[in-house]
Amino acid sequence: MSSPIKSLTVKKFPSLLSGRQKKFKTGSTELPSGTDSARELARALHPDFQYLTVAEVIERAPDCKSFRLIPDSNRGTKKLAYFAAGKYLTVFENINGLQVTRAYSISSSPKDSLDGKYELTVKGVEGGAVSNYILINWTPGTEVKVSAPAGNFEYQPLRDAKTVIGLAGGSGITPFVSMANAVADGDEDFNLILIYGSRNEDSILFKDELDKIAAKTNKFKVVHVLSEPNNSDSDPGFEKGFITSELIKKYAPFDEPYSIFICGPQQMYNYLDNELKSLGLEKKYIRRETFGEVHNPASFSDYPSDVPDTVNVTVTICDETKTVSGSTSDTVMQILEKQGIAVPSRCRSGECGFCHSHLISGKVYIPENLDYRRMADKMYDCIHPCCAFPLTDIVINVPAAK
Amino acid sequence: MKQYDVIVIGAGNGGLTAAANCAKAGLSTLLLERHNIPGGSASSFVRGRFEFEPSLHELSGVGKEDEVGSVSNMFHKLGAKINWITENSTFRLVVPAKDGDKDAFINDDGVLVSVDARMPVGFENFAKKLDEIVPGSYEPAMKAFGLSTRMYEAFDALGEGDDFSGIFKALPYFPDLMRMTTHTLNEGLDALGMPKKAQDIFSTYWSYMGVPGAQFDFLYYLTVMHSYVMNGAGMPKYRSHELSLSIDKVIRDNGGEIWYNSEVTSVIMKDGKPAGVVVNGDKEIYAKQFICNASPDFVWSDLIGKKDAPEKQLRMSNARKTAASLTTVYLGMNKTKEELGIKDYSVFIANSANSDEQFAGSQNYDGNYCIINCLNHVIPDCTPPGTSMLFLTTITFDDVMKDVRPQDYKKYKNKVAKLMIEQCEKALNIKIQPYIEEIEIALPPTFSRYLNTPYGTPYGYRLEMWDSMIPRTIQFAQDQPYDNFIFCGASQERGDGYGCAYHSGEKAANIVIKSLSKEGK
Fold first, then answer.
1. ipTM entry
2. Domain of residue A327, residue span
C-alpha cells in the first residue's frame, strides 16, 4: 500500500526516544514547588479547618449572642478564609465527649475577615444542645474549630435580579447582616431591601447595626415587621403582623424584576410558600437558605407506619466497624454522634452532600424536600445520613470524619 | 500490622479502574480518596432542580447499539452496568467574521461568520461535509481517515490488546506510524494536501487534549479524531457520577475497600522504596504494591520529598510542562433548548478558526475561545420539563490567575463567566443571561481543589511532540519511579480523557497483578 504521507521523513523517529530522555536530563533536580496560583487560591478559600479564638462576646438579646472570632496562629490558622456574604461556618464542638457540629451563618462583613475577624451569631433554642452549650461556654479566649465558609445562599449577579428582597425571621437575620455590610462596603453590587420579622421591638436583633448600614448607603434598606408588638413599639416605620405578599409588593420595585431571598425558621418557609405564590415570580427569583436539622420524621405525611422505636446501626468507618442502637426519630447522623462516633458533616440539611455514605443494607426514610442526592446515588444506595432516618436495622459505610 | 497487596492512591478514573481490576483479580485492595465521593473529574453536583455534569464533553469508545467500544467494553468486563446514551454528531465550529473578511456570510442564525461548520459522524459524511465547506478537502480527509484506520489495525496487529508496549518491535513494519508520530498535525495535513481552511476545521478537537496543530503529533490527533468521527460519542445517562459509582460498587463487591475522606499525607519509605502510606496525618497502612492516581509533581513535593525522590523523577517533573487548565460555567436554564434557540450539542466558538491562534489566545481570559454544550441535545430529559442545562468551557494555561486575590475571586469569576456567556450569545445570536436559574463557575482553583493537580489541570503533562503518546508508551516502564509504585491517570501515556485514564488504571493493575503472581501470591 502506498503511503499518502511519503513526503514526511521516517528518519526523525530514532531520535524521538533518545530525545525524550535527553530532554528529561535538562530538567532540574529541585523538588517541584508544590505550589501554584490556583492551588494557593484554593487553599486560601477552602481550608479543611480553621482554628479560631473567641475575642469578644456581644449580647444581642437575652438569648442571643454574637461571637467575634480571630485566627489562632498557634494552632495553624494565620489568615481567615475570605467568603461571599451569606455563607455559613460549620462549628465543631466536643460536648461531654461527643463530637457534634452545627452550621451558623457568618453575620459579619466579608471585608472584616481581611482584618482577621469573623462574627457568628447564636440564638438559644429550646432543646438546642449545641447552641445552648455555645451560649454558656464560649467566652473570650475559648478555642474554636470551624470549617471553611460554605453554602450556596449568596447573591449571584448573573442569575439574580438587581434588587433583592430579603425576608428574614428571628436569627435568620444573620446572613443578611453580612450581605448588608457587603453591599455597603462595595464587596457586592445589588440593592437589598430587608423585610425582617420579629415578635416585638425588643426581640429585633442587630437593630442599631442595620440602621447604621442603611444610613451609609442607599442600596440597603430595612423594614421591621412585628408580629406581637408591645404598646411602646410605636415607631411609625414598623409594620405590624406577618410578612405577607401585600407587604412584599409594598416595598418591592414595581417596574423591574426582583429576587427574593429567605432565611428563617421552618414555619416561616411553610407560611411564605403560600404567600409567594400570589406574586407569580419565576422560580429563579426565589432562593432560600436551607437551615437546620429536621426532627420528628413521623410528622411527615409519607412516613411509613409500623416503624420500631429503636434500631441497630452497624457502621464501618475505614477499618473500624461498630454496632450501636438508636431511636428511629433521630437521623442516622444523630444516632452515631450520640454514641460518640464522629461522622463528616457540614450543612446538616441534606444539601451539601458532605456526609455522603453507602447504605449497605436496611431501609431509611428521607423527607422528599431534603433529598438533594444525585440521581446515581439513588441507584447505588448512597444516602446523606444528616437527613436519613432509619426504618429498620441498617448497615452503613461512612467516610472518615473531616 | 495489616498489609494489603495493593494500595491505590486516589479514586479518579485511573485509580478506580486500577482498584477494580486488582480487586477482581483477588488481590487485597485498598483505595484511598481524599474526597467524600469517587471520580475526581467524573462526578456531578446538584444545584436547585439541576444535576450538572462537571467535566465530560463526549466519551469516545462507547460504540453504538450494535457495536461495543473499548470503553464500554471495559465497564462490561468489570461487570459495571451503565445507561449509555450516544450522540450522532461531532462538533460545530463557528467563527464570527472579522472586519474585512471578504468570504464572510450570514448563516442560519443570522450571524455574519467566517466559518460555520456543523460536522457529522461517519468518515464519508465528514469528508463530504468538509468538501462542501472547503472544496478539495474530500480526498485529503478520506486519506486521513484511511491512515487512522490503518493505525488502529496496526495497534491491533501488535497483539497486545489495549497495551501498545510491543509496538517498538513492530515499528519498522509501520513506516507511516513513525512518520506520523514525529510530525505535527499541521505537517501531516499539509502532506495530505488538505486546504488550510479545511485543516482548521479538522483540528477543532485540539483543545480536548490541549495541544494545537503546530505542537500536536499527527498520529495521536488522528486516532482521537478517528474515534469520535467513526461512531460519535457517548454519555452516561445519570452524569459521570453514574460511571464512578458503578466502579465503586465493582470494587466493594469484589472484596476491595474504599476509604473516603482519607487523604494520603505521606509515603512511608523502606529500603529506598515505598512500603506504606500515612492517611490523614496519623494512620499508617502498608502494602506490597502501590498504584498512584495523584499528580506526580505533588507526590514528590507533598508525599515523598527530596531525600527519597529519584533524581530522574524530579528531572522529569521539571522538564515537562503542565497541560491545559479549564474554566467551566454551568448554567441551569428556565427555558428549553428550543426556546433558547440552541440547535447543537457542542459548538466551538472562536475568534480564529486556526488551532495555533486559538492556543495563542488561551494565555488569558479575553473571550477568544469558548465551547458551549447543551446536554439536553443528547439526553433530552436530563433536566425537568421546560428547562435545559448548558455548560461553557474555555481553556487556559499556567499562571493565568496569579494576580487574583481571595477577596477579588468572586468578582473575577463572574467577570470571566460574563465574557464567556456574551461570546456565546453573540456568536449564536441567542439570549442566555435572562434565563439563568442556576449558575456555578469553576476556574482553575476549583479544579485544583477537587483534582489536586498543578494549576488544577485535568490533563496531566502537555503532550508536546517530544513527549507524546508513542514515546510515552514505549518508555512507560522506565518512566515509573520504583518497581512497586506505578502512576496512572492523565499524567501517563495517553494523557487526558476518561477513556485514557480508565485504560491507564487497567494497565497499572495488570502490571501489579502480574508482578504479585510472580511472587507466588
1. 0.96
2. 297-397
Q: What distance in Å separates residue A199's CA from the closest CA in chain B?
A: 31
- B402, B421, B471 member nearest A16 (Cβ): B471
**Portion 93-112 of A in contact with B at CB < 8 A:** 110-111
| Least CB–CB distance from B261: residue in A21, A42, A399 | A399
User: Whole-model pTM above 0.90?
Assistant: yes
Out of A128-137, A197-206, A258-267, A291-300, least confident range: A291-300
Partners of residue B51 in chain A, C-beta under 8 Å: 374-375
Decide if B369 contacts B358 (C-beta within 8 A). Answer: yes
| Domain containing residue A347: CATH number | 3.10.20.30
Q: Is the same domain home to A95 and A193?
A: no
Number of domains in chain B: 2
Could you list the residue range(s) of the whole structural domain that residue B489 is in? 3-42+240-321+461-518
Same domain, A321 and A284: no
Mean pLDDT of B461-466: 96
Contact B470 A16 (CB under 8 A): yes
What is the identity of the amino acid at B337?
A: K
User: pLDDT above 90 covers what percent of chain B?
Assistant: 85
Question: Does B161 fall in a domain?
Answer: yes
| Arithmetic mean of pLDDT over chain A | 95
Q: Cell digits for A178?
A: 453580612
Calculate how close chain A gets to B437, using CA atoms only, in Å.
Answer: 4
Does A250 contact B at CB distance below 8 Å?
no
**Widest pairwise Cα distance in chain A:** 100
Whether residue B181 sits in one domain with residue B251:
no
Q: Is the pLDDT of residue B158 over 80?
A: no
Neighbouring CB atoms inside 10 A of A203's CB total 19
CA B216/CA B452 separation, integer angstroms: 26
Per DSSP, B351 falls in state: S
Report if residue A176 sits inside a domain. yes
Structure confidence at residue A293 (pLDDT):
83
Q: In this predicted structure, what is the pLDDT of residue A49?
A: 96
Beta bridge partners of B475: none
